[in-house]
What we know:
Distance between the termini of chain A: 28 Å
CATH class of chain A: Mainly Beta
Number of strands of chain A: 11
Number of helices of chain A: 0
Strand order of the largest sheet of chain B: 10-11-9-8-12-13-14
Number of domains of chain B: 2
Largest interface: A-B, 39 and 42 residues
Radius of gyration of chain B: 20 Å
Largest sheet of chain B: 7 strands, parallel
Order of helices and strands of chain A: EEEEEEEEEEE
Helix content of chain A: under 10%
Order of helices and strands of chain B: EEEHEHEHEHHEEHEHHHHEEHEEHEHH
Shape of chain B: globular
Shape of chain A: globular
CATH architecture of chain A: Roll
Structural class of chain B: alpha/beta
Strand content of chain B: 15-25%
Helix content of chain B: 25-40%
Oligomer: heterodimer
Amino acid sequence: xxxxxxxxxxxxxxxxxxxxxxxxxxxxxxxxxxxxxxxxxxxxxxxxxxxxxxxxxxxxxxxxxxxxxxxxxxxxxxxxxxxxxxxxxxxxxxxxxxxxxxxxxxxxxx
Amino acid sequence: xxxxxxxxxxxxxxxxxxxxxxxxxxxxxxxxxxxxxxxxxxxxxxxxxxxxxxxxxxxxxxxxxxxxxxxxxxxxxxxxxxxxxxxxxxxxxxxxxxxxxxxxxxxxxxxxxxxxxxxxxxxxxxxxxxxxxxxxxxxxxxxxxxxxxxxxxxxxxxxxxxxxxxxxxxxxxxxxxxxxxxxxxxxxxxxxxxxxxxxxxxxxxxxxxxxxxxxxxxxxxxxxxxxxxxxxxxxxxxxxxxxxxxxxxxxxxxxxxxxxxxxxxxxxxxxxxxxxxxxxxxxxxxxxxxxxxxxxxxxxxxxxxxxxxxxxxxxxxxxxxxxxxxxxxxxxxxxxxxxxxxxxxxxxxxxxxxxxxxxxxxxxxxxxxxxxxxxxxxxxxxxxxxxxxxxxxxxxxx
Lengths: 110, 398
């Protein structure tokens, strides 16, 4: 696994060519237009540094891939440019504990 | 070339501290009071709170009291606890180190025990000035790596940069330890491919499987709410970042807490207890694993943080590598390295990796780290149980 060396200043980083998510390297506002691996993407919500967004549509139940490694599964259909986090993806191993109101554990998707 | 404090077993230390060890919570206050006036003179507090004996915690204490960075040990006992104090005292004495046992019930209570302990420390500090020093190579160093207070920047900047520093160390035949099998869940097949033998690869997959079962039984992954606030969504995403700390070298072997690597190379420390789930969470906080790597002989531990951890450790210095540029701006006083520069485009991974390595050599030569200078000496030790390692886990099997 090769790690990236340095950002290009665009504010977004696709860590490996086949990944379906990219990460924000700077705070990005909703509506920001980005070009990631030749695709034009409009962010559907604001993103903090390190948080991730879909670079193409991801069907419910399919793997989320970062740095070429599967990091979980889409809990529902995700559109390109959509924020990807505990609200729309889940672990293949152990549920995620958060302090968000209403649900302490993000349910596992089987 | 470094200069180390020579111990009778041939190992060399980069510090020459005194550990004051309470052998049950009931002796904690007395031990802490003994340390207090000497805390800026390399005298450090460690201990075990439990009253029941436990082979793991006994081994941990033996390793820490005879650690190359430890010059002498004072054991503080209440008197009636289950810890085998005479066996520990014997082990430390046999290692050639000054050692003393203060039993509070025999000494006559709190005041007399504190006075007796402090008098011994005063005299021992003097004695330690005569500890022989000798040349020490990078290949004699043992270095651990840990991440704590992680966010989604940890795996992009600080962790892979520490991995680079590990690669430099392994090239020079130092022993490097990465750990947290509970935070390598999802990375088992990648790691197995890097093992020096297929058998070791299978052992690595087994240790991660054990971690999955353990945390599933406990009902909670090794994942804090702050990790999610920082952009990490699942344990395997956190694992991916944690895994980056290991660098790119081949994996030479597996250790369990307190096993000292006998050759250089990259080792995975399996910190998940064996057998059925007992005694609770295997890493109740970051310092539990830091203490375990130090018990494996780690002279130094590199510690990455995105959210902003401030911890240090007793016995061995912690080098704090900050992953997140915003956190660095807020907490620079606690951070030794600003790895967030990589995200800002101001440095490459290789440059920061080299910077960490260079700093590590300076710290090994005696330069205090930020957490050391601030007096951080966190320590925790709980109950666990382990079985011996299988033959495929040792580098000799390669």
